[in-house]
Amino acid sequence: MNELGFIPVTLVPVVWIVAAYLLGSIAFGILVSKLFGLPDPRTVGSGNIGATNVARSGKKSAALLTLLGDVFKGWFPVWLALQSGMLMWVVSAVGLAVFFGHLYPVYYRFKGGKGVATALGVMLAISPLLALAALVTWLLVFAVSRYSSLAAIAAAALAPVFAWFLLPYKDYVITVLVMSIFLIWRHRSNIQKLLAGTESGFGKK
Questions:
Q1: 193 alpha carbon, distance to own chain's centre
Q2: Residues sharing a CB contact under 8 Å with residue 205, sequence separation 6 or more, in sequence order
Q3: How far is Cα 183 from Cα 158, in angstroms, rounded to an integer?
Q4: 128-145 and 116-126 helices cross at what angle (nearest 10)?
Q5: Which tens digits make up the pLDDT trace of 154-186?
Q6: What is 113-142 written as a DSSP string?
Q7: Is the dihedral of CA 182, 124, 92, 108 positive or negative?
Q8: What is the DSSP track for 61-110?
Q9: Which residue ranges in the chain fall short of pLDDT 70?
Q10: d(C-alpha 122, C-alpha 125), whole Å
Q11: Is 33 in contact with 57 (CB distance < 8 Å)?
Q12: Angle, helix 170-186 to helix 188-196, in steps of 10 degrees
């Protein structure tokens, strides 16, 4: 038994991981759009549930709330696991669980978003400096290209490099690497459109 009083110690990591996945499965893009009376983001634009697609509704406040919600749900369980003294592998597993919850949410038939903001939240909990490096990369690429997808791909590609130099523990580097691989994979259709010159960018016709 442990501090929870009724959960065997061996099952504590499982509880943390499952809880993180369930939190990650909450789609703030869908909830915020419904709150603001906007169309379901899955039915408009790119069909993605993230802040970028919500922004296409023209409601910047809704997009901002979606972004903050997705970042928060990535940050909170990892931060809580760290504060609770969980083993490093458990913290890493919690981070991946909340990330995969966003990608494959149980509440929405496992059809989720691309995970950019949630991955940023996970990195923020692990290392604010790492999150800042990834965010600055996104901002610079977006400022030059005006393509949110290209900015996300660039940030995802460089995040493991940043992690290698900034993080002292291999478990966390691997966590960032796995998230980056899936982030790029989830953007495969955007990569095809970028190569074909048909990707839609902000301020571009």
A1: 22
A2: none
A3: 12
A4: 150
A5: 999 999 999 999 998 899 999 999 999 999 999
A6: ---HHHHHHHHHHH-HHHHHHHHHHHHHHH
A7: negative
A8: HHHHHHHHHHHHHHHHHHHHHHHTT--HHHHHHHHHHHHHHHHS-GGGTT
A9: 1-8, 203-205
A10: 5
A11: yes
A12: 50
Tally the residues of the chain: 205
The first and second tokens of residue 102, run together, are 């966003």
**Could you tell me the pTM of the whole model?**
0.92
Token readout for 85 is: 């003294």
Taking the C-alpha atoms of residue 135 and residue 124, their distance in angstroms, rounded to an integer, is: 10
Q: 């597993």: which residue's tokens?
A: 93
Determine if residue 110 is left, alpha or beta; phi over 0 gives left, psi from -120 to 50 gives alpha, anything else beta: left
Q: Which residues of 88-99 are buried (b: 16+ CB within 10 A; e: fewer)?
A: eebbbbbbbbbb
Q: What six digits make up the tokens of 12?
A: 């504590």
Tell me the residue type at 115: G
One-character DSSP codes across 33-71: HHHTTPPPGGGSTT---SHHHHHTTT-HHHHHHHHHHHH
